[in-house]
Amino acid sequence: MLKILGRNNSINVMKVLWACEELGLPFERVDVGGAFGFKHEPDYLKLNPNGRVPTLDDNGFILYESNVIVRYLASTYGNGKLLPRGRDRWVGEQWMEWQQTTLLAPMSTVFWQLVRTEPAKRDRAAIQAAVQTLAGLWPFVDARLSGRPYRRGRVLHGGHSPGVHGVPLVRAGDRAARAEARGGVVEAPPGARRVPKVLVPSDDLTRPRPGA
Ligand SMILES: N[C@@H](CCC(=O)N[C@@H](CS)C(=O)NCC(=O)O)C(=O)O
What we know:
Blueprint: E1 2-5, H1 11-23, E2 27-30, H2 44-47, E3 55-58, E4 61-64, H3 66-77, H4 86-114, H5 124-145, H6 155-170, H7 175-180, H8 190-193
The structure holds glutathione.
């Protein structure tokens, strides 16, 4: 069985869990990273020397980098699901890369500041700068999704990472986060809603929760 190593309140882990759900793949998951640390999985750093999550163990085949894991799962087990043919595929790849290389940094700032940092310790200037950057970026996603049936699932290949990235904020229950990251919240398509157990409950993202 597939084994996914990584705490379930990491967006990069969620992305992989979500892909498994979409593909109907059974998996087991082990809490590693974040507040769980790596000590209780002493071999983890041998598998992934970056000390980052997630890592996939597919019967001894070890892979890290969440986007690559998603691609691997889709291309190995998807029978065409999540991996469109021809140019559509490359447009999907483009959005995945864009999320990692362009969107991730300002989104992480907003997420960490508004969701994981208590109000008194927040860096308002950093939040403002990130929100300003994001205000210029999220309209690209809006334009791409506008008029497309992404709620029926197509967003997962056409730009699933922005969708996943929106999930922690949508579910954060933090009005400020939602308001300030407005435009950063892409409504989660049905695939994400089907995995409530692997996503962190909306009321508290500050503490890791053991078990999936
Ligand atoms: N490019 C990597 C980034 C992985 C990453 O930075 N993961 C974060 C969680 S989202 C992490 O491992 N943080 C340290 C920790 O959880 O201990 C990927 O996409 O898998």
